User: Fold these one by one.
Assistant:
Number 1:
Amino acid sequence: MKSITIKGSERESVGKKATKALRNAGEVPCVVYGGDKPLHFSAPELAFKDLVYTPNAHTVAIELDGGEVVRAVMQDIQFHPVTDRILHVDFYQLFDDKPVTMNIPVRLQGNSPGVRNGGRLLFRKRKLAIKALPDKLPDFFDVDISKLKIGQNISVETLLNDDFTILHPETTVVVQVMTARAAVVEDDEEEEGEEGAAAEGAEGEAAEGTAQE
């Protein structure tokens, strides 16, 4: 998984007054959990642009004054309810031998024949929560929908991998194509439908002839 570098400064004071002063200066107070003790630091709000305002998932290399580098993943973020400014970010420290939980985005590949026939594509799960060692974290789940017909779906079961654990039931639907009013289900089914209609018409005519006699 790709990593983003965030340069920050370790915080000595974590009180409300110090936190307010940081925000007024354009800094974001942050905490890294998972180590021997919580690590408090701050970084410029612009430093989080490529981490927060993207559909992609990334790990983070936090570079602190003095040369210390901490590997982590973002766990939680708080925004101001009016201005949408970043108020606080929580991180979880990464260790090579410790699994971590993370949401991984899903990308759809190809064009669904069911959609071409008028079906409606429903993208149920745009992200999937997984648990894996840091070096086994995938950048994306690529889901091929090029054979997805009307009435079919792709579930978590098809995405299982020995490198990680998906934290959703195997039957969880990721993407599906539903029937729309004007949808053409399949050519062979359509032909059967026409033959059935012709047979019903013939039976109706025969019944009318009997009634007239």
Number 2:
Amino acid sequence: MSETTVRRNRTSPAVPRVPAAGPQPVTAVLGPLGLFTVLLGAALPLIDFFIVNVALPAIDADLAAGPALLELVVAGYGVTYAVLLVLGGRLGDTAGRRRLFLIGMAAFGLTSLACGLAPTAWTLVGARVAQGAAAALMLPQVLATIQATTQGPRRARAMSLYGATAGLSMVAGQILGGVLVAADVAGSGWRAVFLVNVPVVILGLVLAVRAVPATRSDRPASLDVPGTLLLAVTLTSLLLPLTEGRSAGWPLWTWVSLTVFPFAAVAFYLTERRADRLGRTPLVPPSLLRLDSLRRGLVMIVPFSIGFSGFMFVIAVVLQQGLHMGPVQAGLALVPMALAFFAASLAGPRLVGRFGSRVVTAGGVLQAVGIATLLVTVRSDWSGLGLAEIAPGVAVAGLGQGLQLPVLMRMMLSDVPADRAGVGGGVMVTTQQSALALGVATLGSLFLALSPSTGVRDALVVTLLVQLGLIVLTALLSLRLPRVLR
């Protein structure tokens, strides 16, 4: 489907229009093995965003990193990943999605190897930045390939599986990280959380060559250099000072960077809107955001992801440093959440067919109940808090999350035209990834700032109350979704 050319006259400005999203012709079909392969590619970047949470104490002990560099190990990956995702989608639309998927996956394997072999903390930070860039090349091709090679019920099922994979990967990352650190395979310690990617990437490359069809946009657009640079400045000026500011003591550069953010954001929007009106293809077409399903989903994914990632970071710190659990126990504490999320993800498509968007609202209510249960447990039985006491709260929260995230992701891309699949997926994942990074930066910093003065328990209570507010906001926003979801 080609982009609509906008007519303009002297008396009224042009109003960009989004092409109608009818059935798209599918020239290549994504089979079960191909779907498994691209979902494997979707899982790796999200697992690696969370897998380091339980490995940070071991990294600090081995490399003498210190708080500032430890946060850069997390932020360097997350910020680079978020900044380059939309560009990765555009490059896939232009150069071919399978080609970029293969290049991105190979680069992800090499940079994971570099992380695992890093001799110093600064070397690890540099390798994590490169790993984030590789992930940004790989991940957008997953969504674009699904959009371009499936239709109707097959696309709905594939998108539901993508959402399930994304959510499960975020929880499984911390579980896997705890197991690998404790296992100390061949004396590798924390390095195993990165080295484990290498054989997985080799398998993924072999499968991708055999099973992932080659697709690209029918009308590939040229690179939007001003938009790319302005998006990079916008996201970096917000995410980097928020993630590094607390541990660095809020030096002058953090305040200068935060001051730059609103100006960069406005300049980015105006530049993209002008390009859209002139009939060019900007990096993030404002006309794409006129799609109601995408726009409303993006608004909801922000508070959901901030609360989710903030919780995952804080709970890892609480379990290991506050409750003095080992990495395996800290990982096992989240198993009920992972199992409940997976079960809800499988049931989600049937429930949506029967109850529509109210499934998302019900998921928000369940997640709120789970976090409230955990909050009451923490306040009433802190000294006796263990895996059994944590399990009910995290299980119910996971059930609620599983009813929200896969449905939201499926809905957001349901109306995106096939020739904009790469940029549409890039916009969605960039928003999600930026919110995940914000969650660690805001809720994580709040917890770490409060815990020295109030104690770990009270700092956790405050953090859970903030997350509860974000969950309530997400549930209220879900009431504005159309009742019937495609």
